[in-house]
Prior knowledge:
Number of strands: 0
Helix content: over 70%
Strand content: under 5%
Number of helices: 10
Order of helices and strands: HHHHHHHHHH
Largest sheet: none
Oligomer: single chain
Shape: globular
Low-confidence stretches: none
Number of domains: 1
Structural class: mainly alpha
Amino acid sequence: xxxxxxxxxxxxxxxxxxxxxxxxxxxxxxxxxxxxxxxxxxxxxxxxxxxxxxxxxxxxxxxxxxxxxxxxxxxxxxxxxxxxxxxxxxxxxxxxxxxxxxxxxxxxxxxxxxxxxxxxxxxxxxxxxxxxxxxxxxxxxxxxxxxxxxxxxxxxxxxxxxxxxxxxxxxxxxxxxxxxxxxxxxxxxxxxxxxxxxxxxxxxxxxxxxxxxxxxxxxxxxxxxxxxxxxxxxxxxxxxxxxxxxxxxxxxxxxx
Length: 256
């Protein structure tokens, strides 16, 4: 890896982290396109720079939702299933899933088809939950279980949590905000756990690459979050589903 690649990875991460298209899947595909040699560092890099994107939420929500104790109780409850499942399957995810390109493509394709079908079927009720603080604890746990599906690269943490919330009667904007906030403890834990396991194996120059990717993903993600909040108030998720399918199909047609 070099500085330019770290910047490209940071841009891809910042754009895709909060969109229902799978940032991890896109990072894996980006590595293939750039010809970046697969390594344990690259896998750690793809995990750590996601925390940079997460910190954009602190900047954007620091004066509002982040101050609500009730909101954070719901986030903590939703985080518990993810933490347990993530810890149990950490080695499988990193050693098997993150190196399986076809798994990523099939997850993108099937997830895209599901997004399109779900959006055609789902109708938001007039009594849907319109505030994060009003989400029941039981529903928060279920959303956490949905988020856990994203241990498979290509599924998309954002898509899984959003769909889970919509199924259980939460308004689009509200579940998108909850998905943003739930990402904070999720990626903080994932990054901390991965660094604890692997930081002693990094070379000094690799730490520079981590820093560059981290900062770039943070800056780009600020615009990505604003875009998604603006977009979902006027449109559905069908376009994201079409995009996911197109990425997988084009990759297959190119013989990748």
